[in-house]
C-alpha cells in the first residue's frame, strides 16, 4: 500500500497556472498522490479535467460540500488527508474554515482570506483543531532563501539593522495606460480584489519575506501608495517604511507599474556583521557581504549549506532550481509536518504568516488614507 | 479512463538522482502516469521503492525479462507504452534493443550505449520498428535553448560561422588529487566507464548542443585530451577543435578539473548577422548580439519567443525555469510524438543524436591517441 | 602658445584622493593645464606638493587671499581662468563667493556649502557675475547616465511615473559598532559634518541623479532617518519618499550601514513606455526595459548612443570607463562652457544642482525631526 | 624643480586614440611630464598638436632623427628620459633600437616589432644598454589581474593545471562581409599588417596574459586559424591549443568575427586547489573558485588585496577602475623602474613579453600552415 499522503485539490482545473504549479510541486518528493477534489464548478469540465489527470471518477465531487461529506464517509486510511485550496480568493475563507473544522490539513493559496477579520476567525478555528495549515508564500521555498534565514538565525550577519525588500513588476502598466481596459480587470476592481492591488498581491510577499528571513516582527508601517490615475481606485505601486524597533528600520517597495520588470522580488538585509543580497529571478545565487572580506556567492547543493536548504535541493550544484522547486519544497515541508517529521519552523509558511499578511495589507491601506502616517502592526 | 501515457521505468530507484529527475519531469505536463517497472535488481528494494511511489505491486517486475514478458501479455490499452531506461550505461544497449523490438517507445538516458557499434545496431533496430526513441540530452529542453535554435533556423544571426561550446566541471579535481581515491571511482575505470570520462560524460553534451542549435553537422574533429596523471587512464579534460566546413569552425571545451566550476555548460555561437551567448547555470537569459544594436536579453514566457520555447514555459515571465523544467520539456516532446502531435524536430533528442554522440566520443579519443590529428565524423 | 584653459587648484594636496581625481580628470581631454594654486595651508607642504606636480613656484600662493590678489595682477591672458575648490566643506562658501566676485570660473566639490542659506547667497552672487560654476556631482559624468538622460528627454520611456534611486554604502558600520570610535570621526560630528551624515554625503547624490535624469523637480519629501544608536547624533541611514506630482512618486534610499556594500548607487526609473536600470559600480551597462520586447543592454561608444554620451567616451566599445572618466567628462563639460562650446545642459552639474542639493538635505532632516511628515522642496 | 620624469612621445597625434590613452595614463600618478616629441610626420599638424597640448615649441621636432640629435645635445637633467613609441607598427623596431642605443628608456606599443627577427635584435640591443623597456600589454595593469597573478604566485590555487584565455571581438565581421571593403583595410593587408590579423592583434594579448598570470612558459602550440573567405589572406579567427607541460594544457581562443562581441578578453585558470575567472569588460570583479567553499568575488581597493594590486588602485572600493587606470598602472610601473623603486616583476610588461609575443604569432601561423601541428615555442 502506498505510503504517499492523499491529496485533494479544490480549484486549479483547466489551464490554471496555479494548478500546474501545485500539482508538479506535490509530485517532487514522492510524498503525495492526488486522489480527488473539485477542479471546476462546472461538472463536465471538472470530470474531464480529472480524466486528463488520470484520476478515479468516484473521488471527483460535484461541489465542495459533497467533497467534505463523502470523504468523511470513507475510512480514515482511504480518506484525503490534506487539501490544496486554489479557488478564487473569496472562497479561501469558507473552504479553509470548513476543512479545518472537519480535520483536514490545508494548503491554502495566498492571500489567506479577503479581510483581516476572516483571517483572525480562521486562526481561532485552527487553534481548536489538530491540523496542519500552510499558506503558500512560494518564495520562501527556495534553497538559498532558506540558507539566508538560517545564517541570520545563527548570527552570521550579527544583529539585523536594516531590511530592504523589493517586489517590482510591470505587467499592469500596459493595461493601466488604456482607460477602458483598466476598468475591466478584476485585479483593479475593489469588489473582486478587495482593498488593494499591489500591496495585496505582491507587497504581502515582500512583507512575509522580511519577517521570514529576519525572525523579527514589523512593529510599525507608514505607506505611500499610488493609484497612478484618478479614476483608478486601487494601488498599483506602494513604498512602505517599516520599523522593527526604534533603531531597526527598513523599506518595502512594491510596484505593478515598474515597466518592463517581470517578477523582481529582491532582498537586501544588513546586520552588524554582514549583509545579504538575493534576487528571485536568479534564485540560486546568494550574495553574502561583510565589512572586510571578499563577497561570497553561495549556491544550492553544497555541503556548506544548512540542512533545510540542502533538504530542498534534489540535484548536485550547478543544476538550477526554479520556481517549481521552490513550491515543491513547501509541499515537502507540509508533508513532513503531516508525518510528524518537521525539524525546523521554516519548512512551510503557517497560518500566522497568512494572518500577518492580511494585517499588513489593511494597515498599509489605512496608513496611506490617513495621509502617510505610522500605524502599529 | 485516464488519457495519460503509461510509463514504465527501469532503474532509478532508491536515492538515484536521475530517478527523481525523470519522475518529476514525467509529471510536469500531466501527460504520463508511472505504471510500473523494475527499479532495482534486489527485489526487496524494488518493491519497497514501488510502494513508496504508491504503485500497484502487480506491475513491478523481478527483472527486465519478466517486465517485457508480462507487459506483452496485457491488452494494449493497459500495457506500458513507453519505458525510461535509467540503468547503468552498459545495460542501455540490451534493454533499449529489446524494448524497440517489442514495440515499446523508449526514453533512454545518455550515453546511448557504450560503443559506437552498439549504437549503430540500435539505430538499425529502430528503423525496422515503429517506435519513438529519445535520448535525454537534458539541456536541449530549456526554453531559451529552443528559442536560440529557432532564431538560428530563421536566419536571425545569418550564416553561422563560429561555434564555441564549453562544459566545465570541477568535481573530479579533489578525487583526482588523491592517488588512492582516483583508482576507486567508476568514472575513471575503463572497464566501467568505457574509453572516456570527460568527453564521454559531458563533452558529448556540448557536441550535441552544437549540432542541435546550428542544425549543422560537425565534419571533422581534432582532440587534445588530458588525463592529468600518468597513472590515470581516462581523460578528465579535453579541448576539441571542430570543423563544420572549410571556413566554419569551432571548439568544444570540456573539463572535469576546472576546479570550482559546477556545471558550466556555456554556448557562444556567431554568424554573419549576429551572435548568441547562453549559460546553463543561468538558463533563463539568452543574450543576442549584433554588430551595431544594443545587446538584447531574451527571457522565457514572452510573446516574442517562438512556439517551441513557449510550449516549454509553464508560468509567466520572471518565474525561473530550472533543470527539472528542461527535462520536463523533453518528456513533453516525447509525449507529443507518441500522440502524433509533434510539430517540430527539436522537441526531443533522437536516436540520431545518440548515435552522433557515440561517434563523437570514439573519434575524439582516436584523434588524441594518433597525436592530435583531424578525423572525419 | 597653449590653447589649454589655465586651471588653479585650492586644496587636494598630499595624499588627498579627491585631488588625484580632479587632476586626472582635468588631463583627460587635453583641455586644461594646472598652473598653480594653494594645495595646503602649511607652506612647506604646499610648495613640496607643487614641486611634485612640476609646477612653477611663482604661481603657488601662501593662502587663498594672496592667490586672488596676485592672480588679478596678471594680464588676463596669463591669469588662471578656472579654480577647483577641493578644500574642507566649510571653506567652499567663502572661497567660491570670492572667486565668483572676482570673475573666476569655479569647479566646486560637493556639498556646495554647509547650509542652504550660504548656497542661496552663492546663487545670487553667481547671477551678478558672468562666470561658469560647476558642482562636481561626479556620477552624472558617466556616458551611460548621460545616455539614459537623453533617452528620457526624447520620450523613449514615455512619461516618467516612478523613480527609485539607491545609494548604499557600508563603510561606517565597523566604525559605528565601536562606541568610542564613532565619537571620533568628523563625519558623525555635527560641528564638522553639519546636520546630516548619510543624506548629506550620499543621499544628495541620489537626489541629484533623480532630478538630472528625469528633468523633473522633486516637489515634496518625507524622510525617515536612522542614527542607529542613541548617542549618535547624525543619520547613518535614510529612506526618503519623494513626490514629483500627485501621481508621480519615488523613493531615495541611502545608507552608510548597508554592511558590505561599497558604493552602491543604483538607478531604477520607470515610465509609461519603458524603464531603465543602472548601477554605478558597473557603469558601462545601461538596461532598457519595455513591456513586451527583450531587455536591451546599451554600452558606451556605440553609434546608437547620443552625442553627449559619445562625447564622453574616448575609446571603442569594450574598453571600460571608470570613475576617472566620469569626472573627466564633467571637466570636459566645464571646458566647453568656458570656451562657449556647450550644446547641452547636461554636460556638467550647475549651481542650481548645488542649491537644490542643500535644500534637499535640510528638508529631509526637518521632515524626520517633525515625525516623518511631508515637506515641500 | 619638478621631480617628474621627462616623457617624449613619438606618434599619437591628432585624433589618435592610443595617443589619448598614453597621455592620460602618464598623468595618473603625477610621475611624468610630457616634454616634447614628434606627434606627426607633417610639420604643421605636429606643431599644432603640440600647441593644443600646451607644449613648448622648441622640444617639438621635425622628425625622429632630429629628436634624437637635439635631445642628446641637452644636459642630462633637461633631457627627455623616456619615450613612448606610438607610431605605426613597422616603425617600432627602428625607433626603439635607436632609442635604446642612445640611452633612452622606452615604452613601446605592441606588437613590439613586425617580425620575430627584429624582436630578437632589439632584445640583444637592450642587453647591451642600461635602459628600461616596456611593451604596453595594457590589460596586465588592471588591479584584479595583478591580484590574480599574486595569488597564483602564492599558491592559492595550487599547481596550475588548465588555462583558458579568450579574446573575442566582432568588429571585423561587418567589414569582412563586404567583398570590396575587406580588400581595403590595413588590418587584412599582409603588406601592412604582417602575417596575422587576429592572432597578431589580440591573440598575442591572450598569450601574454597566460604567461603573465601563471608565471609559466607555453612550450608548444597547435593553431587552427580561419580566414573565413578564400580571397582573404589573414586570419580573422584562431583557436590555439597550448601546452605548458605534458599534463598542463590550455587553449587560447581569439576572434574578430565573434559578431557582437566588443573586447571580450576573458580568463579562466584552474589549479589543484582553486580557480579564477576574470573578464576585461568588467575588470573590477575577480572570481575565486574552490572545490568546496562559496565562490569569492574580490574587488579593488580592499585590504585583502596584495601590494601590487593596491598600488594600482587610487580610490576606495566601489569606484570603478577602467582601461585608463590599467594603462596608468603600467606607466606607474615604468616610473618606479626608472626611479629604481620597483619591487615586483609584474609592474610592467618587459622586452621579454614583447619577444615572446612575436614568437607566439609566428609559430601559430606556421602551425596552421603545416596543417595544425604542434610546434615548440
TrEMBL record, chains A, B, C, D:
Q: Name one Pfam family in it.
A: GFO_IDH_MocA_C3
Q: Which InterPro entries match?
A: Gfo/Idh/MocA-like_OxRdtase_N (IPR000683), Gfo/Idh/MocA_oxidoreduct (IPR051317), GFO_IDH_MocA-like_dom (IPR055170), NAD(P)-bd_dom_sf (IPR036291)
Domain GFO/IDH/MocA-like oxidoreductase: start-end pairs: 145-276
Tell me which residues make up the Gfo/Idh/MocA-like oxidoreductase N-terminal domain. Answer: 29-137
Q: Which GO terms describe its molecular function?
A: nucleotide binding
PANTHER family per the record? Answer: CONSERVED EXPRESSED OXIDOREDUCTASE (EUROFUNG), OXIDOREDUCTASE
Q: What is the official name of this protein in its record?
A: Gfo/Idh/MocA family oxidoreductase
Organism whose genome encodes this protein: Wocania arenilitoris
